[in-house]
Amino acid sequence: MKIDGTPYRTIWQDARGIVQVIDQRWLPHELRIVDLQSRADFVVAIRDMWVRGAPLIGAAAAWGVAVAMQEDPSDAGLTETWEVLHETRPTAINLRWALDEMVRVLRAVPPELRAAVAAKRAAEICDEDVEINRQIGLHGLEIIKAIAAKKPGKTVNILTHCNAGWLATVDWGTATSPIYHAHEAGIPVHVFVDETRPRNQGAQLTAWEMNHHGISHALVVDNAGGHLMQHGEVDMVIVGTDRTTARGDVCNKIGTYLKALAAKANGVPFYVALPSPTIDFRVQDGVKEIPIEERNQEEVTLVQGRGKDGTIQLVQISPDGTPARNPAFDVTPCELVTGLLTERGLCPANEAAMAAMFPDLKAAMLR
Ligand SMILES: CSC[C@@H](O)[C@@H](O)C(=O)COP(=O)(O)O
């Protein structure tokens, strides 16, 4: 997408061949671009959320393997790289998907060719992600068009949680792709952006994206969604996912489940934008089986923002000594999901429909 007229992706190889990313820790206040030049750089960037969002975590991991192959292309180096990168974040399955894919491709070539082959495959994974998200957007556009047709001349109001925008992917975003497509098709859309405590990905990233793309939006506190839905102010919810199980349970940023409950109670359709690398056919019951990342307490007790003097600051919002819990994701059971927006089309959130839409992926994953 564009930033002030210039097209960007979230991760790319520059003219020197060095991988660069937008360091998202400083948005919306500063756009910082950094080089990632070693495997250790990638570990830090993923673990400490310089880059985040399930598809981008996968893309970054793929590039991390490529850079690691310049350091040590041996079989042992490849295995160790898989392990070291896999430990960075436990919930988003795209990480494992990308690492498995890189290992599959690289095992088939001799060590001296691995760096070049890995760079090529990492670049392809990025391009594939862009195309997947574009397709999700086109399928989602049809749903937005159908809602718009029922309220001629009126705005379609969409609520989203966290950042499942282009910053969470290589480009387009998953949940935002239908929104960008609708905006470009001239359909009036308005986006309620959940702030998404504790790290405020909505307030800091989704709002920044909407601002830069000129899309009508309003930032709302995480607790506002139910109220807005009760008052008929939300036509649909679209969120992303970090892992979706074989039966369609959706694991996404903490707070997603509450939005799904509110949507169900108020008859608001709840869609999940699902790129196929985010499906984990090995898992059925998301609540019982998906590991939920528990992050640092300080993400809850400290809030980052820009002070009046223009500097980026962390301020403490709780008493000294108050402990915090910080589960970063929750699981929305498939019964609460109206539909899964995939690159192959709209898929009901149940096991038979997912198996029918992705038989090849299911077979490959369970092999
Ligand atoms: C297209 S991204 C889908 C999800 O990855 C997104 O909604 C989300 O939960 C991101 O969490 P984060 O902790 O910021 O990596």
What kind of assembly state do the chains in view correspond to? single chain
Which residue ranges are poorly predicted, with pLDDT under 50 across at least 5 consecutive positions? none
User: Treating each run of at least 4 consecutive H or I residues as one helix, how many helices?
Assistant: 13
Summing up helix and strand content along with how strands pair, one would put the structural category as: alpha/beta
Q: In the CATH classification, which architecture of the largest domain applies?
A: 3-Layer(aba) Sandwich
Which ligands, by name, code or SMILES, are bound? 5-S-methyl-1-O-phosphono-5-thio-D-ribulose
Please give the radius of gyration in angstroms.
20 Å
User: Which fold does the CATH topology of the largest domain refer to?
Assistant: Rossmann fold
- CATH superfamily membership of the largest domain: Translation initiation factor eif-2b, domain 2
Number of structural units classed as domains = 2
Share of β-strand residues:
15-25%
For the sheet with most strands, the description reads:
7 strands, mixed
What distance lies between the first and last C-alpha atoms, to the nearest angstrom?
37 Å
Envelope shape? globular
Q: What is the CATH class of the largest domain?
A: Alpha Beta
EC number: 5.3.1.23
GO biological process, one term: L-methionine salvage from methylthioadenosine
Keywords: Amino-acid biosynthesis, Isomerase, Methionine biosynthesis
Protein name: Methylthioribose-1-phosphate isomerase
Short description:
With 367 residues, the protein is α/β, with parallel strands linked by helices. 43% of the residues lie in helices and 19% in strands. The protein is built from 13 helices and 18 strands.
